[in-house]
Amino acid sequence: MSQVLYITAHPLNEMVSNSMAVGKAFIESYEEAHPDDEVVHIDLFKDEVPEIDADVFSGWGKLQSGESLSEVEQHKVSRLAELVDQFVAADKYVVVTPMWNLSFPPAVKRYFDAVSIAGKSFKYTSEGPQGLLTDKTALHIQSRGGFYSEGPAADMEMGDRYIRTIFTFMGVPNYRLIAVEGHNKVPEKAEEIKLNAIQQAESFAKEF
């Protein structure tokens, strides 16, 4: 049995959001094809993901020196430990985001900061950082109103580029993108674009 982390980062549901619609279609198809696997949903607009702030740095420092943590420090440090342990234990990742201002909602960066922890998802070596998640698989489902896969806007796309890079940094060898793109550029084809992405997601879910 495999565990899949289904990580969504959109304040709206699948009735409004293209990325969420494609993500829902993927997960439903995946669960049908892999009934013994466990899917855990992380909603980055609802679930608690602490920022790495002064309390966290203070708490980490106190842990190393054996000092007692304040209640706030203990809560944040413990929650971050839960998140990274959950992330490392998973076998597969499905990340669903819209493109916001060429990137993604801020909650996505906060989450990847929480799970990119030395000694957990990567380690430092004499030759530089080395990823530890070498037996995992990741999928990014991203909606973007324009066309960014190729052409003059391709270099401006920073969302999938970051997510792909951070997964590579953590050692994940298998990464795939399903892009739902162009629906604002050619609104007359918006429904067709979404349906094509849903079909692609449902098909890929069977082999993911």
TrEMBL record:
Its EC number is 1.6.5.-, 1.7.1.17. Pfam families: Flavodoxin_2 (PF02525). Keywords: Flavoprotein, FMN, NAD, Oxidoreductase. It catalyses: 2 a quinone + NADH + H(+) = 2 a 1,4-benzosemiquinone + NAD(+); N,N-dimethyl-1,4-phenylenediamine + anthranilate + 2 NAD(+) = 2-(4-dimethylaminophenyl)diazenylbenzoate + 2 NADH + 2 H(+). Residues 3-202 form the Flavodoxin-like fold domain. FMN binds at S17, N18, S19, M99, W100, N101, L102, S143, R144, G145, G146. Its cofactor is FMN. Binds 1 FMN per subunit. It comes from the Bacteria. Belongs to the azoreductase type 1 family. Quinone reductase that provides resistance to thiol-specific stress caused by electrophilic quinones. Homodimer. This is FMN dependent NADH:quinone oxidoreductase. The gene is azoR.
